[in-house]
């Protein structure tokens, strides 16, 4: 917690909080989501055409 004297305003944050679009722009996350999505797609196609 930041100690402030009475009447002194707290300092503004250095950066704005980053949201979901920043998280989705990270390459490791996109690679992970692509792999999981392709595995789900392959499983769905296997169920549709081979079972």
Structure description:
The protein is mainly alpha-helical. The protein has two helices and no strands. The longest helix is centred in the last third of the chain and has 24 residues. It is rod-shaped and about 70 Å long. The N and C termini lie far apart (60 Å).
Share of helix, binned? 55-70%
Rg, Cα atoms, Å = 23 Å
List how many beta strands DSSP finds: 0
Question: Which word captures the global form?
Answer: rod-shaped
Q: Whole-Å distance between the termini?
A: 60 Å
Q: Give helix and strand order, one letter per element, not per position.
A: HH
User: Roughly what fraction of the amino acids lie in strands?
Assistant: under 5%
Most strands sheet: none
* Average of pLDDT: 82
Overall structural class, as computed from helix and strand content, comes to: mainly alpha
The number of helices is 2
Low-pLDDT stretches are none
